[in-house]
What does this fold into?
Amino acid sequence: MARDKKLIVANWKMNMGVHESSLYLHELSRMIQPRRDVEVVLAPETLALQTLSVQINHRQFKLAAQNFYWRDHGAFTGEVSATMLRGIVQYGLVGHSERRNIFHESDKDIRAKVQAAIRNNIKPILCIGETASERAWGETLDVINDQLIGGLANITSEELEDVTIAYEPVWAIGSGQNALPYDVTIAARGIRSQIKHLYGAKAAENIAILYGGSVTAESAADYLAIPDVDGLLVGGASLDAHIFSEIVDKAHSKSTVVKKG
Ligand code: PEP
It folds into this structure.
């Protein structure tokens, strides 16, 4: 993902079935114009992906899987693989804190999923971030470093070009308690510095970094103004078409200001 575009990702989580998702996409299509400087990615529940991929204007929206299994085929009852999502989605969330904490996904699972996504032409959005207690202990940057090492092991510099990092402090997700822009600035700098350490200066400069955690239409612009932040991962606020389209508008006006400045 080139950094000349803002990336706004809507994580609908386990809300809205196929029919409702389809109606909601219709509503969003009328409210959000295709923009060259903003990529809008929608992550509905898995069953809705196929329907939305047919319905969607691909210049207007891209699709992301919220989850997938890392093996391509086989005796894994109940799972959907990245191979099965290939051609339907362009992005895949990996390592979301709800997957790490509720479903006990380990760094080993997460790096296997990053690799599976890349193997199947799906751009992984690797989610990382500290818990409230890790934050209280001043361990934020250590957690970020460890999760980057854990999630990106075996990923080459060339493959890294398709990876986006989402900084999502666990305590800020779905809590209404969003991180201060200052803290996001420090975290995003920390991410670039660890990427530099792992892959060199060019990779660190090029990698796209998102912020996620209780983003609202009011707070979006503050995060988008941070030079190291290239977009947003939006959960709750993406379920309201007016609020979500306002967030996308903020990303558009932010890119316009950057270009003119
Ligand atoms: C998320 O699900 O990644 C997220 C950031 O959720 P919320 O915006 O609701 O905090």
Observations:
- The radius of gyration is 17 Å.
- The pocket of phosphoenolpyruvate is lined by residues 11, 13, 168, 173-174, 212-215, 233-237 (CB under 6 Å).
